[in-house]
Write a structure and sequence with these properties.
This protein is α+β, with helices and mostly antiparallel strands and 189 residues long. Helices cover 15% and strands 39% of the residues. The chain contains 4 helices and 12 strands. The longest helix has 8 residues. It is globular, with a radius of gyration of 19 Å. The relative contact order is 0.20.
């Protein structure tokens, strides 16, 4: 009689050496409610006489305050993403903390295999930050402009610590957009 060993399904949870599987880790971390931000930066032109630079944006839920003195924040970027590559070369970037009415903005900049960022910004109301040159969304709960102080490789992500150069409250009384259990949510007061 042949003895066969079952082959796990391709999507089956396989534990890491430490014992927790990707699925278990994702399920546990999905229970942590997070605010939603749009991280932006302006890619400078390659040559002074070439076409103008392009704005780049990405949705982030892994964003937090690190220090009050000096004012520091941290954002986690997927290693090798366009934003990670850009911020490795260019130290200035911005954050717009999204309000609940900006749900479509979050979805737009979270798409995989999306169209050019230039088209994604085309119909969005924003101002250009004086310190960073990056887009700051009109109607956001808060906006920050930052300069990278440190980059730390962490697994498949890069943690970028930024010194806050400017802070503003465009719509301080709006309700926040949150992310919980794999979906954008509205916070009920």
């Amino acid at each position: 009689m042949l003895k066969t060993t079952p082959v796990p399904a391709p999507h089956a949870a396989s534990p890491h050496a430490e014992g927790v599987s990707n699925d278990e880790f994702r399920a546990a971390m999905s229970r942590l409610a997070a605010g939603v931000c749009l991280i932006t930066a302006h890619e400078t032109p390659l040559t002074s006489d070439g076409p103008r630079g392009e704005d780049v944006g990405m949705t982030a839920t892994a964003f937090l305050s690190v220090s009050l003195d000096p004012p520091l924040v941290l954002v986690s970027l997927r290693e090798g993403s366009r934003m990670d590559d850009l911020l490795a070369e260019q130290p200035l970037w911005a954050v717009s903390v999204l309000a609940d009415h900006q749900l479509q903005v979050a979805g737009r900049f979270a798409m995989k295999g999306r169209i050019s960022d230039r088209l994604l910004f085309a119909d969005l109301p924003y101002t250009r930050g004086e310190a960073s040159g990056a887009p700051l969304l009109t109607g956001a709960l808060a906006t920050l402009e930052c300069r990278t102080e440190n980059r730390v490789e962490a697994g498949d992500h890069t943690l970028v610590v930024g010194r806050v150069l400017t802070a503003a409250l465009p719509a301080p009384d709006a309700a926040p957009l949150t992310y919980f259990r794999g979906r954008y949510r509205h916070l009920r007061a």
